[in-house]
Amino acid sequence: MMKDIIYLAIFTKYEDDEGRYGVHFPDIQFAATGGNDVPEAFRMATELLSSVLYHEYASGNELPKPTPINEVKFVPDPDDGPCEWFVSLVTTRFLANRYNEAVERVNCTLRSILKAAAQNAKLNFSMILQEGIKDALGIVENKRSESVMIKM
């Protein structure tokens, strides 16, 4: 079962910070990142959210409850100088059940020279294919509980 997890992030741009954006998640203690512009800051925020939540989940901790958007409070620190800020939703996905309960046989096409070289090297075709697909999808396995998270 795929589960979208959505948290609020506050993006700030301070006048004296060369146009960079800082990002923090009010619901996740010590979760802060940034970027040179909004797209980079958003990518970094998504990566940070995925990493922090996965770590919490894999450690057996309960995930923090997200604050509803209409309850967000942000007061810039006057010592940091004037800033512009906005709130955005940042999402990640969990595949919380055991994805590997069912195993299916698949056929794939491979160049003969690659097949021969892989067989000589005693490579495990199934494992390599599965790892490649997981990597392409951004799936990170939790070895302990056999759950996975998909990084967005």
Instruction: Predict the CATH topology.
Output: Double Stranded RNA Binding Domain
**CATH architecture title:** 2-Layer Sandwich
Total of helices: 3
What's the arrangement of strands in the largest beta sheet?
Answer: 3-2-1-4-6-5
Q: Please identify the structural class as seen in this structure.
A: alpha+beta
Contiguous low-pLDDT stretches (5 residues minimum) are 97-101, 143-148
Q: What is the general shape?
A: elongated
The overall strand count is: 6
Terminal-residue CA separation: 16 Å
Name the average pLDDT: 80
CATH class descriptor: Alpha Beta
Q: How many strands, which pairing sense, and closed or not: the largest β-sheet?
A: 6 strands, antiparallel
Q: What portion of residues belong to β-strands? A: 25-35%
Bin the helical content: 25-40%
User: What is the string of helix and strand elements?
Assistant: EEEHEHHEE
Q: How many separate structural domains?
A: 1
Radius of gyration: 21 Å
Domain HicB-like antitoxin of toxin-antitoxin system: 15-114
Protein name: HicB-like antitoxin of toxin-antitoxin system domain-containing protein
Pfam families: HicB_lk_antitox
Organism: Cohnella kolymensis
